[in-house]
Amino acid sequence: xxxxxxxxxxxxxxxxxxxxxxxxxxxxxxxxxxxxxxxxxxxxxxxxxxxxxxxxxxxxxxxxxxxxxxxxxxxxxxxxxxxxxxxxxxxxxxxxxxxxxxxxxxxxxxxxxxxxxxxxxxxxxxxxxxxxxxxxxxxxxxxxxxxxxxxxxxxxxxxxxxxxxxxxxxxxxxxxx
Length: 177
Ligand code: FES
Fold this sequence. Notes:
Helices cover 43% and strands 11% of the residues.
């Protein structure tokens, strides 16, 4: 399932990450746990952090990297405050999420190959079926506090309203002007 961490990558060093891994038993079975803690501390998983987690539990970097890039839970890029997941399962895809994804990315000025808006507020990702196809097309937002907001029957109008609300909230919190 999708993770709950959403924060802009900071300047937390690999040493600080390692310090937070201390309580995790050093065994390969704890790889996912170690990556999860590392991401919570750093905000995302750059190469040096993946390496620190891999070393801690005693697995090769390549294995840790594969895990870090396989699960939606993890991100090897800095994440926006809000992670917006667009469901690309068959029902949502056919009911408009292909167009909704394009609209969302153009609204946030996210270029091809990028996922995060330049103001660091939004990361847009695709995901597989969320399990609520009767509300298709569906979009899920992971809020900075870890709460998940699911939006059904998404349209460009609904998306515009959602982004306006989140931007307003971000301004009120002082994250952007
Ligand atoms: S296909 Fe999107 S919720 Fe199932």
